[in-house]
Write a structure and sequence with these properties.
This protein has helices at about 1-15, 15-50, 75-85, 150-155, 205-210, 230-240, 250-260, 260-290, 295-305, 305-345, 360-385, 390-400, and strands at about 55-60, 70-75, 90-100, 120-125, 135, 145-150, 165-170, 180-190, 200, 215-220, 220-225, 245. The chain starts with a helix and ends with a helix. Helix content is about 55%, strand content about 20%. The chain is α+β, with helices and mostly antiparallel strands. A 6-stranded mixed β-barrel has the order 3-4-9-6-8-7. It has a two-stranded antiparallel sheet with strand order 2-10. Helix 2 (about 15-50) crosses helix 10 (about 305-345), helix 2 runs antiparallel to helix 11 (about 360-385) and helix 8 (about 260-290) packs parallel to helix 11. The protein contains 12 helices and 12 strands.
């Protein structure tokens, strides 16, 4: 404690140098904290997004993620068979389709894929709660009723009670069908949506919008287990060995191995660069401070301060700079992460419920641990200078100069 108090007085005596060091550590510490949040942020966000839908297992025809492979045939029969299993609490078929809003001011104009009128359509079939969360109004239960996401309601001025003329594209994007008039009954959050503007409806509504010529298919069947998730997945496979059930943990593990390694690599590289910069900054500041105080340190040694004591003073000075800067870096890092996350999540094709920077307690632990190692490593060279300082010659040079 005496060494820490002495180091604090040394910092206070040189406020400009101390402020430079603390602000520098705060800047690199904020970037370090953000990189730690980014390394597993997408995986953590996806796990939370999957759990928020209320389903434990996703069944597809090929083992690919929904919309990544061929659809499940005879979806209604498959869903009914799954729902009858004692290991299953409920099952729900889901199908995705592209659609275009046909508004009067755009009548007769060519449809542009990049126009704000392009929407994604999620249709579900089966009993139980839907995989979206209603924010206002009510859920779409009757034929030709839909719920919309908040972005569509805000950007296009859609309100509950409005009717939307929607032209669905059920088999291909070049398909031309007459528009269906759909009634907006609620505003909902769609965790699984990849489109900026999304509609949610029953499977019957999508079939009607497709002109009644759509096949009984589903991109996936969502299942909620009644007990053990792995036991439920095994039961599904026994009933239909031609499909591929994947639990939430399996989906997250697959995405971690294949989809998000790019962000983990970026995080690792930037973390290394950030720590290197912090190490150099603190080492330079401490070395300059020690060189300016060589005469003072030699005098303290002559008065009876031990070598271990003056070395501890230098280490405590490094700990104070890093500790204060690291503490200040946390609110700076959170503010920076929120801003970057808003920019990244606005990119097209990003699900509305996904985030790139997600806080986890272990990220805070890693942040503190890495900064502590940096503080010790940065103090090694200045500590060596102090430990090997020749007392007599240093005092003589101080007097002569």
């Amino acid at each position: 404690m005496k060494a820490l108090a002495f180091a604090w007085r040394s910092l206070v005596r040189q406020p400009a140098r101390a402020a430079l060091g603390i602000l520098g550590v705060a800047a690199v510490g904020a970037l370090l904290f953000d990189m730690l949040l980014l390394s597993d942020g997408l995986v953590t966000s996806m796990r939370e997004m999957l759990e928020r839908t209320g389903f434990d297992i996703r069944v597809t025809a090929t083992g690919e993620l929904p919309r990544g492979g061929r659809r499940i045939a005879q979806a209604s029969a498959v869903t009914a068979a799954f729902a009858e299993l004692p290991e299953v609490e409920r099952a729900l078929a889901i199908r995705f389709a592209d659609a275009v809003l046909v508004r009067p001011e755009h009548a007769g104009a060519p449809e542009d894929e990049a126009s704000p009128d392009r929407v994604g359509l999620e249709a579900v079939g089966g009993d139980g709660p839907q995989p979206w969360t209603v924010l206002r109004g009510r859920d779409a239960t009757a034929l030709n009723e839909v719920v919309v996401n908040q972005a569509l309601a805000t950007d296009l001025g859609v309100k509950i009670g409005d009717r939307l003329p929607v032209r669905a594209r059920c088999r291909s994007r070049s398909e031309i069908l007459p528009p269906a008039s759909l009634l907006v009954v609620g505003v909902a959050e769609f965790p699984l949506a990849l489109d900026q503007h999304v509609l949610g409806s029953s499977m019957a509504t999508l079939d009607a919008a497709c002109g009644g010529n759509s096949e009984d298919e589903a991109d996936a069947v969502l299942v909620r287990a009644a007990g053990d998730v792995d036991a439920a997945a095994a039961a599904l496979l026994r009933v239909r060995p031609d499909v591929r059930p994947m639990t939430n943990e399996q989906v997250v593990g697959r995405v971690r191995r294949t989809g998000f390694t790019y962000f983990q690599q970026i995080s690792a590289v930037l973390t290394t660069v950030t720590l290197g910069f912090a190490l150099l900054l603190i080492t330079v500041l401490l070395t300059v401070s020690v060189n300016q105080r060589l005469g003072e340190i030699a005098a303290l040694r002559a008065l009876g301060f031990s070598r271990a004591r003056v070395v501890a003073d230098v280490l405590c000075e490094s700990v104070l700079i890093v500790g204060l800067g690291g503490t200040l870096s946390l609110p700076l890092g959170v503010a920076l992460a929120n801003g970057l996350d808003r920019i990244l999540t606005d990119m097209p094709g990003i699900p509305s419920g996904m985030h790139f920077f997600v806080f986890e307690p272990r990220a805070l632990a890693w942040h503190g641990g890495l900064l502590a190692v940096t503080a010790f490593a940065a103090a090694l060279y200045p500590m060596r200078l102090v430990a090997r300082l020749p007392i007599a010659s240093t005092l003589r040079n101080e007097v002569v100069s």
